[in-house]
Amino acid sequence: xxxxxxxxxxxxxxxxxxxxxxxxxxxxxxxxxxxxxxxxxxxxxxxxxxxxxxxxxxxxxxxxxxxxx
Length: 69
Fold this sequence. Notes:
- The chain contains three helices and no strands.
- By secondary structure, the chain is mainly α.
- The longest helix has 15 residues, at 28-42.
- The termini are far apart.
C-alpha cells in the first residue's frame, strides 16, 4: 500500500496516526525533579554508588600474597 502513495501522502498518514495516539506532555522541570527525587531515593541500595559488600561479592580477590613456584 505504501508503494502506491507519494511521500507527502505517507507523511500525512503518519501525522494522522500520531494525532490519534496523543501522549500527555509534562514540563521538563517537573519530570527532571521527579527523576532526581527517584535517584536520591534509591541511591542507598544502588551498588554502582555504594559498592558491593565484601560478603556478597563473588569476585572478591583472595587475601594473601601470590605464591611463586
